[in-house]
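hi support,

uploading two proteins for the ticket. first:
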Amino acid sequence: MRSLTIASSVLLLGWGPMVQGQSLGAAAEKEKERRAKLAGSSKSYSDSDLQKAASKRAREGEATPGAQASPSAAPTGKAAASPRPAPAESGGAKDSAASEADKKARGAEYKARIDAANARLNRAEAERRAAEENWNQASQHPTYILNEPARARLEAARKEAEIARRERDDIEDAARREGIPPGYLR
């Protein structure tokens, strides 16, 4: 049995150098050739291609069955329940400029709300840090009378900070669902 194990080990180790993997350069060359064969055989369409075709049909007066929104931009989850303004179908520089101005105005409103939420969050975080320090000092004293108010203050401060953080995140989510670019919120 032992000689069989040794013989199989020698046999496997002897075949190891004969079996070689494909080098990285050879694999890259092979993939490049494969893609070159496929390059002319198919066309991919993006959302912008579909929107251009829909606006072209709208200008020509044809019916546009799928002009509302692209499938990849469909909201999911909580976003599906919120009202979302329909995109302009007729295009035109005037409509897009008005839409962009509207987005900027809404972005400014959301920015003001986010700034107020961030100020509230900063105050809540400062109160939480102060409460933690108070708790650390009170926990060193063996007197229960000092520990309970400090613990209650710490818990209240943690809850307030979490509520403020959630409020800020909800405002950012609402702006995102309305299609406001993140840059307008900064």
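and the second one:
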Amino acid sequence: MLVLTLIGLHGGYLTSHQKNVWDMISDGLTQSEIARRLNVTQQAVSQVVVSISERVTTALNDAARLNEIEPRFIDSNKGVMLGWSNCFNTEAVITFNPKMGLQVYYQNRLGDCDVCLRRRTCKSKLLKNAQVLGIPLTPQERSLSPSELSGVVFSRVIGQANFQK
């Protein structure tokens, strides 16, 4: 089970133009379609996509450094990093997207979401991250507690990472 930490950074990693392009990519548009919408060349969009990837990687690495997390896998296109927390001696997942900023999740075995005041916030953020990461969830999975839901979402992210290696 992974639990959201208190960190949620919305830094200036992406310009409003880059956020707009990333949103369009997340919505499934091709670079050609984005270029037509923005009335620019596909090469201009391609350059923006490269700069987005570089900035997302920087954001993920900054969050890892600040939280003493050793990166093990980065997918800058999805805005996700898997790593190991040396402080807490556990797995960690860092996500970044323009709407939610940086989020850091740590695996723990406590997971008593019924007594937590942040239950709704955690669940909402997990559901949004699943959507952004393209992780499909069944209605039954969507009704899980945040602790259980995080296990489903991030085990699928980790599965994708292992599959891509």
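thanks. also noticed: The chain has one domain: 2-164.
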